[in-house]
Amino acid sequence: MATGDIRAFGTGGPAGRRPVPSLEAPSPRYGEKAIRGLLALCALLSVLTTTAIVVSLLLPTLDFLAEVPIGEFLFGTTWAPTFTPADFGVLPILVGTLSTSLWGMLVAVPIGLASAIFLSEYASPRTRKVIKPVLEVLAGIPTVAIGIFGLIFLSPLIEPILPFMVKVPPFSAGIAGIAIGLMIVPIIASISDDSMRSVPQGLREAAYGLGATRMKVATRVVFPAAISGIIASLVLAGSRAVGETMIVLLVAGASPNLTFDPGSSVQTMTAFIGTTATGDISTGTITYDTIFAVGALLFAITLVLNLFAIRMVRKYREVYE
Question: What pTM value is reported for the model?
Answer without folding.
Answer: 0.80
